[in-house]
Amino acid sequence: MLRTACYAGLVALGIPSLVRRMRAAGVLLCYHNVLPPRNATAAGDVGVHLQFERFAEQIRWLARRYAVVALREFVERLHAGRSLRGIAALTFDDAYDGVFQHAWPLLSELGLPATVFVVAERPERQDAFWWDYPDIAPSATPASRERWLRELKGDASAILSALSLRNSTQVPSSHRPAGWDAIAAAATAGLEIGVHSATHRTLTQLGDGELEHEIVASRETIRARAGVVPTLFAYPYGVWDTRVRDAVSAAGYRGAVTLDYGLVGAGADPWALRRVNIPAGITLPAFEAWVAGLNPRGGRG
User: Fold this and answer.
1) What is the mean pLDDT of each successive set of 10 residues along the chain, which is 301 residues long?
2) Which terminal residue of the chain has fewer beta carbons within 10 Å of its beta carbon, N or C?
3) What is the SS3 assignment for 67?
C-alpha cells in the first residue's frame, strides 16, 4: 500500500515525466500473457497473466508518450549508435496463446509492433509451463525456485518429478502456449518472432552440446514451422552469463534480451539488453515510474 501511494505521489509531482524527458535512453517492455477481456482467472503465476483491460491501459499510455518501434529496429539503432531517447519496444516471453488472441489484435488495431519469443518445442504440445501448475505455488519460495533453476537446470520434467506432479489438466486454456498455426498467422501479419530457446531450461547450467541445441536448433524449428528466420533471442528465466551471451552472439543473433531491470542507452551490449518486466498486478502510476527507470528495487513490486 505504501509503495502504491509513493508511485502515485511521484506521478502527481510529474517526476516520471521529467525523468523520461531527461534520459537519453530507450525502454524495452517485457510482458508474458494477456488474459481475455473481463477475465479475472487467478490460476498460474500471478505475476505473468495480465488482465486485458490493464494491458490496454498501459499500451495506450505508452503509445501517447513514446515512439514504439519493433525490437529489430531498436537493436539496429543501438548497433548504429543512433539515439534511443523516447524509443520503446514491446516484447512477450513464452508465446502464450493470450498474446495472439488478445494482445496482438489490439496492437494491430493501434498500429504498434511487437516481438514474441517462442519456446520452440512448446507449440507442438501446448502443455502448460511448470510455473502455471496450481500445485506449484505453495512450494515456489525464492529459495526453492533458485534451486530448481540451478540444480534442476530449470527443466520442467525434473521440477515436476521432484514435486510429484505429472499432468496439467487443471491449467486453463488461457494459460497455455499458442500453437504453430496461430504463431505462423501472426508472423505473416507482421508480428516479429524471436527465440526463447528450445525447452526453456537454464542455459548457464547446460553443457556445450545442449546449449547449441537450445540456441541453434530452436531457431531452425521456428523457421520451419512459422516461416520466419528469427534474429533476436531471449534468455530463459532471464539467466545468462558471458559464455551463454557469447554463444548467442556467435550463432548470428543480432541481439538478446535479459530480465535485468533498466533502460537501454548508448553503448549498451546488444546481447545483454535490459528490460522492464511488467508484473500482472502493477498499477498505472507504478508502470509510469518503472518505464521512466524509477524502480529502486529493480524487480517486481
Assistant:
1) 78 91 94 89 77 97 98 98 97 97 97 98 92 86 94 96 80 92 98 98 98 98 98 98 98 98 97 96 94 72 29
2) N
3) strand
Distances (CA, A) of 80 to 113, 250, 275, 299: 20, 19, 20, 29
- Stated pTM of the model: 0.95
Hey, CA dihedral for 255, 256, 262, 268, is it positive or negative? negative
* Radius of gyration for the chain, computed over Cα atoms and rounded to the nearest angstrom: 18
Instruction: Name the CA dihedral angle for 6, 258, 138, 95, rounded to a multiple of 10 degrees.
Output: 110
CA dist 253 and 295 (Å) reads 29
C-beta of residue 273 within 8 angstroms of C-beta of residue 257: yes
Taking the C-alpha atoms of residue 48 and residue 33, their distance in angstroms, rounded to an integer, is 6
What's the CA gap between 213 and 125, in Å, rounded? 18
For residues 77 and 87, the answer to whether their CB atoms sit within 8 Å is yes
At the topology level of CATH, where does 2-291 sit? TIM Barrel (3.20.20)
What are 85's three cell numbers? 531517447
**39, 280 Cβ separation under 8 angstroms:** no
The full set of domain ranges for the chain reads 2-291
